[in-house]
Q: What sequence folds into this?
DNA sequence: AAGCTGACGACAA
DNA sequence: ATTGTCGCCAGCT
């Protein structure tokens, strides 16, 4: 049974969605929140990402804000780590701003 | 124990 | 168009 304590189902759900982000794609906090049924809890998604750091295989670098800006890059180890990870996946990122954001945007509500 | 903060987002003025 | 405030909920001081 639950060998480990539940980290609030909310966070778990966020992780589940984040893990399903395809390679070379990105999504936004609000999109994930919406898919969870908590459209106004975009903040919590970001907060969940904070806890995800060092937790599960949650590609937090694929989650950005609605503008396609790497708002959370500061939470990564390096200042450019997040951007480098994205570029490594073929995502064009300039000045922490994802290019063609709408093209690589992955909507968990629509595509999931 | 109570209050502030925080990886966002939408709306109001 | 720009700026400011509210909402959301959990974690941290």
A:
């Amino acid at each position: 049974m639950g060998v480990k304590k539940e980290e609030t189902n909310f966070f778990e759900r966020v992780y589940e969605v984040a893990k399903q982000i395809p390679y070379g794609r990105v999504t936004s906090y609000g999109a994930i929140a919406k898919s969870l049924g908590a459209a106004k809890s975009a903040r919590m998604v970001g907060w969940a990402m904070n806890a995800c750091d060092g937790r599960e295989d949650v590609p937090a670098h694929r989650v950005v804000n609605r503008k396609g800006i790497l708002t959370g890059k500061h939470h990564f180890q390096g200042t450019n780590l997040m951007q480098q990870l994205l570029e490594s996946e073929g995502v064009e990122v300039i000045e922490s701003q994802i290019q063609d954001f709408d093209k690589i945007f992955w909507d968990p509500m629509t595509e999931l």
Remarks:
- Residues 28-30, 33, 39-50, 60, 63-66, 70-75 of chain A lie near DNA strand B (CB under 10 Å from a C1').
- Residues 8-19 of chain A form the longest helix (12 residues).
